[in-house]
Amino acid sequence: MARLNLILLLIAVGCGLATVNANHRARKLFSGLDKEQQRMRALDVEWGQLQLEQSTWAAHARIEKIAKERLQMKAPQPAQIIALEPKP
User: Fold this and answer.
1) Once rounded to an integer, what is the mean pLDDT over residues 8-19?
2) Which of 2, 8, 31, 62 is the most exposed place for a label (fewest CB within 10 A)?
3) Biggest distance spanned by C-alpha atoms of the chain
4) What is the pTM of this model?
5) What does the angle CA 25 – CA 35 – CA 41 come to, to the nearest 5 degrees?
6) Cβ contact 74:68 at 8 Å
7) Distance between CA 49 and CA 35 in Å, rounded?
8) How far is 59 from 63, CA to CA, in rounded Å?
């Protein structure tokens, strides 16, 4: 009878330790998930800022201004425009 009690006690202690270990791992995984979700939100904000910056840099008025000022480009005269017809 004493051996049976000792075996049951060891089984109960083992189950308790396994439960504690499982809870600890679950908390660590949840903490890691929370950190990654925060990182995801930060990356979403950065992505939005980069899209806004790209749209600013690629604005037609800005490109036209740079073409005129830095590259001394100008629109062609109507007589200088040649229209090409596609072949059938």
Assistant:
1) 96
2) 2
3) 111
4) 0.57
5) 150
6) yes
7) 21
8) 6
